[in-house]
TrEMBL record:
Family matches, as Gene3D superfamilies: P-loop containing nucleotide triphosphate hydrolases (3.40.50.300)
NCBIfam families: small_GTP
Function of the molecule: The small GTPases Rab are key regulators of intracellular membrane trafficking, from the formation of transport vesicles to their fusion with membranes. Rabs cycle between an inactive GDP-bound form and an active GTP-bound form that is able to recruit to membranes different sets of downstream effectors directly responsible for vesicle formation, movement, tethering and fusion. RAB30 is required for maintaining the structural integrity of the Golgi apparatus, possibly by mediating interactions with cytoplasmic scaffolding proteins.
Main location: membrane
Compartment(s) of residence: Cytoplasmic vesicle, Autophagosome membrane; Golgi apparatus, cis-Golgi network; Golgi apparatus, trans-Golgi network membrane; Lysosome
Homology family: Belongs to the small GTPase superfamily. Rab family.
Enzyme Commission identifier(s): 3.6.5.2
Stated name of the protein: Ras-related protein Rab-30
Annotated Pfam families: Ras
InterPro entries, per database record: P-loop_NTPase, Rab, Small_GTP-bd, Small_GTPase
Length: 203
């Protein structure tokens, strides 16, 4: 038996190119990968963290933002304990797509899922979405909110640690099952993203 007390599944969703993979790799590997290709289907990484002296294992599922993978990625929503919905603060269309993503989440995820809105790429100077606009959206939709930079390692650790702490708190208070099953994953990163990929619409 592995040495951890809690296991939580965290799923990242959002348009292609917003930086989901970079956020996961920053947190799990401490790096900002150069020449990142678009995710194919779903990628999966694990990190065990310690909170209040307890080991918490995070299973982090990085879904492809591209529309053509939507039916694969939707199937990963259901068993998520937390869903991180990511947009790019320098790309308005990725913010405009948020209502579409919320509809997907409502349709496919558990209604108890912890939902976090993340405005990534806060290091960029060509910002299109002011922070208060992101915050306002999150408030209206009952979500936690944070701006991050995977590139500069800003708020990335905080994002995942706060999720782990909140889920641990919930699990303790509701006495949820401590272990979850792991389902198979589809991996691969071969295609590259074009300049406009962050702006691909979902329908
Ligand atoms: N400036 C800046 N660029 C970033 C940041 N995070 C990611 N990027 C860049 O954004 C591009 C897309 O990053 P990915 O992590 O592959 O995006 P994704 O959301 O996983 O994309 P899909 O796999 O297609 O869904 C890459 O060129 C990254 O270098 C960030 O915090 N700041």
């Amino acid at each position: 038996m592995e040495d951890y007390k809690f296991l939580f599944k965290v799923v990242l969703v959002g348009n292609s190119g917003v930086g989901k993979t970079c956020l996961v790799r920053r947190f799990t590997q401490g790096l900002f990968p150069p020449g990142q290709g678009a995710t194919i289907g779903v990628d999966f990484m694990i990190k065990t963290v310690e909170i209040d002296g307890e080991k918490v294992k995070l299973q982090i599922w990085d879904t492809a933002g591209q529309e053509r993978f939507r039916s694969i990625t939707q199937s990963y929503y259901r068993s998520a304990h937390a869903l991180i919905l990511v947009y790019d603060i320098s790309c308005q269309p990725t913010f405009d797509c948020l209502p579409d993503w919320l509809r997907e989440i409502e349709e496919y995820a558990s209604n108890k899922v912890l939902r976090i809105l993340v405005g990534n790429k806060m290091d960029r100077e060509d910002r299109e979405i002011p922070i208060h606009v992101g915050e306002g959206f999150a408030q209206r939709h009952d979500m936690y909110f944070l701006e991050t930079s995977a590139k500069e390692a800003e708020n990335v650790e905080k994002l995942f640690m706060e999720i782990a702490a909140e889920l641990m708190e919930q699990a303790r208070s509701k006495e949820l099952p401590r272990y979850d099953t792991i389902s198979p994953t589809i991996n691969g990163r071969t295609t590259s993203i074009g300049d406009n990929s962050c702006c691909s619409k979902i329908s």
